[in-house]
Amino acid sequence: MTEETVQGAAQPTADKPSAEKSADTRGTRKERIGFVVKAAMQKTVVITVERRVRHPKYHKFVTRTSKFVAHDELGCAAGDQVRIQETRPLSKTKRWRVVEKLSV
């Protein structure tokens, strides 16, 4: 090897993205609005979210429900309307957290 190639390889590159830059480009997280149906666990609630979809064959609008297990720091009770946001996995089934309590 020549001295030129060794010196060229030792120079630091400025093209590496920093940790701050990658955190800013993470993107928006999904949010859902639903009702608390179960609040019997500590800091965990089960939330039901309803959505209306068109049936693929009959073209009638059908109501579909989904249940989400969410982390609750606000102390929600059954029947509360809440907004949830996706987050990193907190347990086996918990991937959402309660962002705000909309109504009681």
Shape: globular
Q: How many extended strands?
A: 5
Largest β sheet strand count, sense and barrel closure:
5 strands, mixed, barrel
Distance between the termini: 74 Å
- The first-level CATH class is given as Mainly Beta
Q: How much strand?
A: over 45%
**CATH topology (fold) name:** OB fold (Dihydrolipoamide Acetyltransferase, E2P)
Quickly count the domains.
Answer: 1
Question: What is the string of helix and strand elements?
Answer: HHEEEEE
Counting H and I runs of at least 4 residues, what is the number of helices? 2
Spatial strand arrangement across the major sheet: 1-2-3-5-4
CATH architecture: Beta Barrel
Low-confidence stretches: none
CATH superfamily: Nucleic acid-binding proteins
> How much helicity do the residues have?
10-25%
Q: How would you state the average pLDDT, rounded?
A: 85
Task: Considering the chains and any ligands shown, give keywords for the structure.
104 residues, OB fold (Dihydrolipoamide Acetyltransferase, E2P), 2 helices, 13% helix, globular
Write up what this structure looks like.
The protein has a five-stranded mixed beta barrel with strand order 1-2-3-5-4. It starts with a helix and ends with a strand. By secondary structure, it is mainly β. The protein is built from two helices and five strands; from the N terminus they run ααβββββ. The mean pLDDT is 85.
